[in-house]
């Protein structure tokens, strides 16, 4: 039962990390196509390390779920941490560049 929980948390963490990576990619693409987009592109470049780190940690946590119960607990801890960091980073990036519709 703990393995199922660990796998679900790890998958959610990977999805959160990939959402952050995808949002940064969209911002970077838009900034490169637009005149005056250099500050946004510079901000995106500064965030790639965080996005890559959380994605790597999430994937590592998912890999940990193939072990025993101790590894499942470690996977839950790593996945929850990296998922929380990725979600917070995505929210802060969205808040910074959200247009007032």
Automatic annotation (TrEMBL):
Keyword Membrane: yes
Transmembrane segments: 6-27, 48-65, 71-90
Keyword annotations of the record: Membrane, Transmembrane, Transmembrane helix
Descriptive protein name: DUF2516 family protein
Source species, domain of life: Bacteria
